[in-house]
Amino acid sequence: xxxxxxxxxxxxxxxxxxxxxxxxxxxxxxxxxxxxxxxxxxxxxxxxxxxxxxxxxxxxxxxxxxxxxxxxxxxxxxxxxxxxxxxxxxxxxxxxxxxxxxxxxxxxxxxxxxxxxxxxxxxxxxxxxxxxxxxxxxxxxxxxxxxxxxxxxxxxxxxxxxxxxxxxxxxxxxxxxxxxxxxxxxxxxxxxxxxxxxxxxxxxxxxxxxxxxxxxxxxxxxxxxxxxxxxxxxxxxxxxxxxxxxxxxxxxxxxxxxxxxxxxxxxxxxxxxxxxxxxxxxxxxxxxxxxxxxxxxxxxxxxxxxxxxxxxxxxxxxxxxxxxxxxxxxxxxxxxxxxxxxxxxxxxxxxxxxxxxxxxxxxxxxxxxxxxxxxxxxxxxxxxxxxxxxxxxxxxxxxxxxxxxxxxxxxxxxxxxxxxxxxxxxxxxxxxxxxxxxxxxxxxxxxxxx
Length: 450
What we know:
Layout: H1 7-15, E1 27-30, E2 38-41, H2 52-66, H3 70-79, H4 81-89, H5 94-102, H6 106-115, H7 117-121, H8 128-152, H9 161-174, E3 184-190, E4 196-202, E5 209-214, H10 221-246, E6 259-265, H11 279-297, E7 305-311, H12 313-323, E8 331-335, E9 356-359, E10 384-385, E11 391-392, E12 399-400, H13 415-424, H14 437-440, E13 444-445, E14 448-449
Parallel strand pairs: 5-6, 5-7, 7-8, 8-9, 9-10
Antiparallel strand pairs: 1-2, 3-4, 4-6, 11-12, 13-14
Region (Disordered): 30-52
Pfam family, one: Abhydrolase_8
Keywords: Hydrolase, Signal
């Protein structure tokens, strides 16, 4: 039997009358006879565009949920899981969600985390620390449910219980870092097999530099999230080493200060039979756009330097994302990229100052193909090339390995990893192909000339 909320709140849920305007200062609380309190625009424009209707419905659902009793929240979510899924598929703008969340008191926030962890954990605009707590709650609940289903031989709405359990245990393993490594948090979690997830290395709430790693084909939460998170850790370590270098060797007292890397498997990546189409890249672009918007809107007036590092098919998803006109980043690095038919040049992308970089390793069969359109490595595209060959680092004077084939761009102690870290720190000028110390000039930071 489906749970039916009180008629008063049901009117808010169904009518979806709430508009949370971006101009929060113009919003005011009003009371309509027969309806629960709702926000109306005080001169602000309602959302527009192709998703405006869905956004209004989502906003109405959010406000309606926040006005249910504590017990009714849990019952409504349990009986209307599709409504939560639909809301996350077409959510309100992250800035509007932030306004909604800030208006809730501590008791109501805690109740929503416990009763609707899937919603709170994956809703852009909710504080990152709260999303981590909600997603960990969802993870624990889902593991218990999958284990019970596997033990009893019953079916699960999330898929085959054994596969779901293996997938969720991979998420748990990805969250376990070494004692001296920075903390990890669960930014996103979809428990329906094959799932989606994003694990953060570092503190996304305070980081000055945020790097989002977007993978290509054959990447699944069950089989690759642990390794992809290890890759994010490797990049974090490289960025941290360069950050210390530019500080003149001074190491921060906080191990996670300034940097966060995101192991993002936020879409269902293609397999051999589907990699010839951009369809899944378009799906990935939709989710990536939402994730980047959430990062961008989390700290108004103090946004981090955001870079996207896309590998293989993931670079295609990144290109589509930044071609949409809905979100921008500070740097984009493409590795082993097949391009995208939607993007003909750097000028098509919302990347600050055209800060787009392309790396192509020797014997990488994808490099130079332009499989989906213009080759991003071509001169006509307008991106800059970063060096992936081995040799001596002109700054540290250490010998770095070269990258070969399609899967060595994040290889430890490689020039490619070194240059990706520099690009992510806004030091792309030091990553150009065949750099020389004399052409770069001395770097003076922290009182030390290098």
